[in-house]
Amino acid sequence: MIVIIATFTSCSKILDVVSPNEVEDEDVFTSAAGLRNARVGMYNTLQDRNYYGAYFPLLAECYTDNGTTGGYDVIDLNDIAARTVGTANIYVQNTYNAIYNSIYTANKIINNAEAVPGIDDEEKNNILGEAFFVRALCNFDLLRMYGEHWDKSSPYGISIVTSSDKPKDAVARSTVDASYQQIISDLEEAVSQLNTFNGNQYVSVSAARALLARVYLYYGDKAKAAAMATEVIDDSNFELFDAENFTKIYTEKLTPESVFELKFDPQNTSTYNTATYQRPDALRSEVIFLANADLNTFFEDREDDARAALLDYENVDVSIQPDGRTEKYRGETTKDNSAYVIRLAEMYLIRAEARGRVQGLADLNTLRAHRGLPALSSGSLTTDALFINAVLEERRAELNFEGHRLFDLARLGKVEEFLGADVQSIMPIPQREIAATSGVVEQNPGY
């Protein structure tokens, strides 16, 4: 685990504060101010370029039929687009390290907050709830990208780290089911501790319930997934835009469509714009993550879908065609694009899938209506398989370039159908991690 937590990003994303990863616990967790600084530092780690600062969701998209890669003919980028990722891929390795770095910071808070003097219980408990959420989010993202999350009987889960001590021994991978149990337990603890809504740029009870809805859907507990999604949908802090205004999600900050959004600013930018758009006449070599031509074909068959406007396949340099670019991360001057970690639209899609063909169609049609599309009829979705395909299509239309496509195809067993034979459904454990742990952390099958 030494390699996992060795990399630490600075805390310049939100505030210039002392990171709890860089100093001893007895120097950080001695006052309310220290705990508050640690809290900010935890959010900062989520904003790392290799995590929700851009690369984690974009890597998951550009390994699929939603995206492809450009860049300066970098082999590791080419391997992502070709779906031939190796165990030394630098993007896979840096993302793995960045996620564990966030876990380490959350563990610092979880293991020290109770002893902090001079802070009232309500604020302390809310910070603890945020930390449990962050640890659960990170573990779930690790499980989705590096573990066989679709198979609860699989031994290839993740290395679960709950200690904030300096690592002495390598931590072997838990089973997939045990990994899920840790994630669910942390989210339940988050729900019990969170007590204040500080805006959707911070973790809230609804954000924890929303993540639980996502986790339960992957885990296969559809009743609980639907119940948690309903709790979020019924929260008056959130609402869907209509078809004429929904692009405000991406042009404004912290809209009611976001349940949890990481906010950046012109002084502390994300990498989304640089990685996906830059200037109008940019060459293919300058744009790292591109929209696949297949995504354009997908939208050509969906007349009146307002979400097609968020893709550009025409106003691009000829070196990019027939591929295009997502316009979800415009703002070439400020480059302060948000990370959309959880959105309300996903809750409707989760509840639709969880409720099934008969009861779930209403949620599917609610979202379609808010995106300019006519309702689907039950007569056109006569089987459960047809309904799941309809949900998958809505998820693709709504969530493309937000980091869901690969995980959706994997959990639904559709990787081969959409991405081709012999394509791995998950990324490899970085070879440096295998070597650093002397093989205690096992590699995924097929790598």
Structure write-up:
With 447 residues, this protein is mainly alpha-helical. 47% of the residues lie in helices and 4% in strands. It has helices spanning 2-6, 25-28, 32-46, 55-62, 75-82, 90-112, 121-146, 176-193, 205-219, 222-233, 248-251, 272-276, 293-300, 344-369, 384-399, 405-411, 415-419, 431-436; strands at 67-69, 258-262, 289-291, 311-312, 325-326, 339-343. The strands form three sheets. Strands 1-3 form a two-stranded antiparallel ribbon. Strands 2-6 form a two-stranded antiparallel sheet. A two-stranded antiparallel sheet has the order 4-5. Helix 9 packs antiparallel against helix 10 (222-233), helix 9 (205-219) packs across helix 14 (344-369) and helix 14 (344-369) packs across helix 15. Residues 1-18 have low confidence and may be disordered.
Provide a count of the helices: 18
Distance between the termini: 20 Å
Inertia-based shape: globular
| Unreliably modeled segments | 1-18
What's the count of strands? 6
Order of helices and strands: HHHHEHHHHHHHEHEHEEEHHHHH
SS class: mainly alpha
Query: Describe the biggest sheet?
Result: 2 strands, antiparallel
Mean pLDDT: 94
Sheet with the most strands: spatial strand order: 1-3
| Residue share in β-strands | under 5%
- The Cα radius of gyration reads 21 Å
In which range does the helix fraction lie? Answer: 40-55%
Secondary structure elements and their pairing?
Layout: H1 2-6, H2 25-28, H3 32-46, H4 55-62, E1 67-69, H5 75-82, H6 90-112, H7 121-146, H8 176-193, H9 205-219, H10 222-233, H11 248-251, E2 258-262, H12 272-276, E3 289-291, H13 293-300, E4 311-312, E5 325-326, E6 339-343, H14 344-369, H15 384-399, H16 405-411, H17 415-419, H18 431-436
Antiparallel strand pairs: 1-3, 2-6, 4-5
Helix pairs in contact: 3-6, 3-7, 6-7, 7-8, 8-9, 9-10, 9-14, 10-14, 14-15
